[in-house]
Amino acid sequence: MNAAKRREIFRRFHEDNPTPTTELAYSTPFELLISVILSAQATDVGVNKATAKLFPVANTPEAIYALGVAGLSEYIKSIGLFNSKAKNVIETCRLLIEKHHSQVPDNREALEALPGVGRKTANVVLNTAFRHATMAVDTHIFRVSNRTQIAPGKNVLEVERKLVKLVPREYLLDAHHWLILHGRYVCKARKPLCSSCRIEDLCEYKHKTSND
To answer: What is the pLDDT of residues 95-112, one digit of tens each?
Structure first.
């Protein structure tokens, strides 16, 4: 895909949705961090249902740590892998209290040192909470990047690096959200909605579908 096509794709995404953001419900960087940890192999809708009960009761490292693994598990047991996630969240809260003055760090190394926080989670927090120009490549972004040929790659890291390099600078901060939303609602895994897609004429996917 050439640079002019890529720029027009993101121009249209921006035109349609000038201020995109995550669909996870949060009000602080800490709430976002916990939500993203919980969202691994789970839907944002499912996470939001759980945190809607959890955060009014406990939304600081100290308050969640005080719940303990068993107490936290009661709030998040509707989410997949809740036992391991509860352990990771409690340990993350302990480290935030002991090493970071109960604040979420705004650098990758410190974030990735927290239990349950990998590169993708760190990128989400850095981008969404701290507005760093990072690219959190999930299954949606990986699929859209390869299918459209915006930034094809064999693995998540390759796609991430290509996107950071190829997305026009003025669109990079929000590109992560546009691509996720496009993959979630339009460029779906089983059957993309090509005939009603905003970028259908620019996309280089060879097996476009009708919506019939």
So the answer is: 999 999 999 999 999 999
Pick the catalytic residue from 16, 85, 99, 138: 138
DSSP 94-128: HHHHHHSTT---SSHHHHHTSTT--HHHHHHHHHH
pTM of the complete model: 0.88
What confidence tens digit (pLDDT) does each residue in 129-185 have?
A: 999 999 999 999 999 999 999 999 999 999 999 999 999 999 999 999 999 999 999
Catalytic choice (85, 99, 120, 206):
120
The residue written with tokens 């996630």 in the block is: 85
212 has a pLDDT exceeding 70: no
154 is catalytic: no
Task: Tell me which long-range contacts 207-210 makes (C-beta under 8 A, separation of at least 24).
Answer: none
* Cα distance between residue 111 and residue 150, in whole Å: 28
138 is catalytic: yes
Residue 40 DSSP class: T
Q: Report in angstroms the alpha-carbon separations of 3 from 47, 78, 150, 165.
A: 37, 44, 9, 11
Residue 181 and residue 183: Cα distance in Å, rounded? 5
Q: Which two tokens stand for residue 195?
A: 């005939």
193 by Cβ neighbours in 10 Å (0-12 / 13-18 / 19+) ranks as middle
Query: Cβ(90)–Cβ(64) under 8 Å?
Result: yes
